[in-house]
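Subject: Sanity check before I submit

Could someone independently write out the structure tokens for this chain? I want to compare against mine line by line before I put it in a report. The sequence has 296 residues.
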Amino acid sequence: MTTDVVSLDYNAYVFEAMLTMLRYNTHHLPILKDKKPIGVIGMTDIVRYESQNSLLLVSSIYQQTSVEDLKQVASQVKDCFVRMVSEDANAHMIGRAMSVIGSSFKQRLAELAEQELGPAPIPYCLIAMGSMARDEQLIVTDQDNALILDNSYDEAVHGEYFAQFAKFVCDGLAECGYEYCTGDIMATNPEWRKTRAEWEECFARWIDDPTPERLLNSNIFFDLLGVHGRLKWAEHLSSFVVRRAKRNNRFLAAMAYNAIRRTPPLGFFKDFVMEKTGVTVTPLTSSVVVPHRWRI
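---
Independent answer below. Compare away.
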């Protein structure tokens, strides 16, 4: 019997059903209305409906058996993005598609790491943060990830395994076009490999005593998504953040102040202000207003 059944609301789009199936590696989804099942949709139903869908490359990610193979698949991501734009897909569809593709690479790399290193000595959850967790990822992005470890974690006993695991995943992501985080917000940094209890203690400190550095970290870490392993741990940690933050007016005020200080990069005629880097013209992303899902 299947536990933790993944379902979908009857108002969801077809593409959302497909992405959910790909994310959770399932071929059928119960459809709910007012939290009651009214039917089931299968991948074959979607394939019949979508005669040609650029997101089907996600399924090929899970079929690859090496980092080199994944690198070859990654070369198709740009084409996938271009096709979606040319097909008039909206920003929500594109952001979610790119996020599912990115999390699929992370998940497959974690599986390959376990094949290379052997089974993990204790339970864990690999998490993604930021735009991927918000389903707002773009075609070019760096990697923000971390590890939630079981409370039985012992650095002397388990540390080497998870250090090698993190290196395999992060190096693999870099090979697939997801650049290393310049701020070192990656599982390769021992600071971002913590037990469940340590993560809660860490997040509680950030909320209860919101220094500028902690507010910056909150902006990154509080949008989190379980990618591989004990996925429920990521959900529990997100719930912890929401419960703790909504009781702390000082923290909420500080986050709100930071948000209103950011202004969108718009010119006099409401067009986007651009900045030049050498001969390349790129969006002025430093001033873009970025939403944070955990605030809702």
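---
OP: Matches mine. For the report I'm noting this point. The CA atoms of residues 132 and 163 lie 23 Å apart.
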